[in-house]
Amino acid sequence: MGITGPLGLGVERFWRRLVNGESGISAIQSFDVKDLPAKIAGQVPPGTRAEGGLDLNEWIPVKEQKKMGRFIQLAWVAAAEAIEDSGWAPEDEAGRCATGVMIGSGIGGLEVIQEAGGLVAAGKSRRLSPFFIPSALVNLASGQVSIRYGFKGPNHSAVTACATGVHAIGDAARLIALGDADVMVAGGAEAAICELGIGGFCAARALSTGYNDTPAEASRPWDKGRDGFVMGEGAGVVVLEEYEHAKARGAKIYAEVIGYGMSGDAYHITSPTEDGEGGYRAMKAALASAGITPEQVQYVNAHGTSTPMGDDIELSAVERLWGDAAKGLAMSSTKSATGHLLGAAGAVEAIFSILAIRDNVAPPTLNLEEPSRPSPIDRVAKTAQERKIEVALSNSFGFGGTNASVVFRAAP
Amino acid sequence: MSETAEKVKKIVVEHLGVEEAKVTPEASFIDDLGADSLDTVELVMAFEEAFGVEIPDDAAEKIQTVKDAIEFIEKQQAAA
Questions:
Q1: SS3 content of chain B, % helix, strand, coil (to 5)
Q2: Choosing from B36, B57, B58, B68, which is the catalytic residue?
Q3: In whole angstroms, what is the distance from residue B58 CA to residue B55 CA?
Q4: For the stretch B39-62, what's the b/e string if a residue is b when 16 or more beta carbons lie within 10 angstroms of its beta carbon?
Q5: CA closest to B34 among chain A residues
Q6: Which family is this sequence assigned to (chain B) (predicted)?
Q7: Contact between A130 and B49 using a beta-carbon 8 Å cutoff
Q8: Residue A338 to residues A49, A146, A286, A345, A353, Cα–Cα distance (Å)
Q9: B16 to chain A: nearest residue by CA?
Q10: Which pTM was predicted?
Q11: What does the alpha-carbon distance between residue A137 and residue A261 come to, in Å, rounded to a whole number?
Q12: Cβ-based neighbours of A83, under 8 Å, separated by 6 or more
């Protein structure tokens, strides 16, 4: 597994800081925010690898860096950690052909699109870089990773807005189950913290604007004072492997993907239905494919973006599906610490769900001071909780009314 | 070495990420300096920008070595 995001580089460091209740939200550094109502984000910290920061020169040859949008660079770094962690390095052609890549992104190379758009607007279309298109294309994260490692199996990419990460992992697991690959490098990457990204989501009235002076308090899922999501950037990558294949080579197995469910709202371009039935059906399908009942799940990593409408709609859907079992359930939103990593969210949150199982810890929902409504579900307010967690479900819902849930179980 | 030659060399080093010593006049961008076709397109654009010259596609195709680049640019500058 590999992560790069607002709480730094490296899965173990990121997880430790998350469980400790640290926030990765801060004032935007990369451009002047004076014209924008949202001025904060969850940014990948600069710094050395040893400090948990990102110095691209430690990871990617300089000549290659300019051929990648930032989301690809972040995917590259997370993939490097994940692949190294997995110990998978196929030595023959058959092994390479049985290894695929499925890293998605919600938006792709938005900052390079912004830059290129500037050239076009200035009448300089002839000055567009030959690397502009391959820097911006969503599937080039998968492409670049495959080129670097020689993985010649399925090369694919999910693009389903904020559900991308879960779709990538779920679809990749299905490709393995269907026999298209033995190993899939899967995940999501996003880097939309630029004027176009922040401005665009501000225009859709989706971002928090009331906590610019206290960034760590801005992402507050289910809290009465929530006023929109905080944008985050980063990447999460996991290495999925057919069980017997992993066992045969003595691989470190964190957890098993046991369920995956998807649905569409067929309702509105940005809003879920009021009863959250789309998310409900995705979770129900995921549990059905896992062959388990709700009471067998101890932890849910919520989509919970800190928007006024979405959080309680998801909560209601979980309450309805879990029924009486809701009172035994822990559900938290780690977006309270990371912000919303859009297409990477589902991937990093899958990793948190897996680590929740490994360590029997539910990570906290920061800033949940006063819930806008009560619930029998323990939303792990402010402080992490030690709990017995054997099965965890992670939700991601995206614009366009796309919903996905994935279920993990402790390694057999 | 002329000023133009120095500048060309510097651009090649920056854009292709190669050691300065490898950027000899005879060095071919593709065969010796590890460039691919997109890299050469970008390199030509960088020359255009740095020297304020225009390098049409048919001329760009003929620029294959460091020397080709220097000679083309110097000719353009002399004509201007």
A1: 65, 0, 30
A2: B36
A3: 8
A4: bbbbbbbbbbeebebebeeeebee
A5: A63
A6: Belongs to the acyl carrier protein (ACP) family.
A7: no
A8: 19, 28, 25, 9, 15
A9: A63
A10: 0.96
A11: 27
A12: A2, A89, A149, A185, A239
- CB A184, CB A363: distance < 8 Å: no
Is A303 assigned a catalytic role?
yes
Distance from CA of A67 to the nearest CA of B (A): 10
Residue B16 contacts A where some CB pair is shorter than 8 Å: yes
A130/B42 touch (CB, cutoff 8 Å), yes or no: yes
Please tell me if residue B44 touches chain A, with a CB cutoff of 8 Å. Answer: no
ipTM over 0.90: no
The per-residue pLDDT string of chain A (412 residues; one tens digit each, 9 = 90 and over) reads: 999 999 999 999 999 999 999 999 999 999 999 999 999 999 999 999 999 999 999 999 989 999 999 999 999 999 999 999 999 999 999 999 999 999 999 999 999 999 999 999 999 999 999 999 999 999 999 999 999 999 999 999 999 999 999 999 999 999 999 999 999 999 999 999 999 999 999 999 999 999 999 999 999 999 999 999 999 999 999 999 999 999 999 999 999 999 999 999 999 999 999 999 999 999 999 999 999 999 999 999 999 999 999 999 999 999 999 999 999 999 999 999 999 999 999 999 999 999 999 999 999 999 999 999 999 999 999 999 999 999 999 999 999 999 999 999 999 8
The shortest C-alpha distance from A126 to chain B (Å) reads: 9
Domains and CATH numbers, chain B: 3-79 (1.10.1200.10)
- Are A63 and B49 an interchain contact pair (Cβ–Cβ within 8 Å)? no
CA distance A63 to chain B (A): 5
